[in-house]
Amino acid sequence: MSSTDESSLFLTAIKFAAVKHRDQRRKDAKATPYINHPIEVADTLWQIGKVHDMVTIVGALLHDTLEDTDTTPEEIQNLFGAEVLAVVSEVTDDKRLPKQQRKLKQIEHAPHISTRAKQLKLADKICNVYDIAHSPPKNWSLKRRQEYLDWSEQVVAGLRGVNPILDAHYDATLSDARAALARSISV
Questions:
Q1: Which of 81, 156, 161, 167 has the fewest CB atoms within 10 Å, i.e. is most exposed?
Q2: Which residues contact 64 (CB under 8 A, 6 or more apart)?
Q3: Does the annotation mark 153 as catalytic?
């Protein structure tokens, strides 16, 4: 794929994700526009993880569209191709399942997904762990935030080894998040 084709694919993915997530907000106190999250995941892959594979980057931009919008697999396949659809599908939870079952499936599934999906999932967890510490969902108790960190660590255990830079960044982000939560207890 030429750099022009990659740039076009990237811009199409940003626009597609922005349209699909246009009415969604994160659950933090500021109600941050949801699109900021997939952009942050893609940026984490590119800047921190040094992942410059466009299928993975586009997958990051689209990673929540199947799960959280009216996007169909056919739309992703037609616009972005089978490889992007495969990556997005690998990181998509089945919303028909109860939340606890979905969380358990992420832990069980993590060691068996592709390298691209592992890197994407790891960047997603990095971003979510950071947000849990610094701009958490407004109704989440400290206990729930701590439980999220513990659960994310179990998921990440199955993702390790494909990108040591992302592994180390997750570890640092988790450590910082735990410290931030500990400080909030002592305040």
A1: 161
A2: 21, 34, 37, 38
A3: no
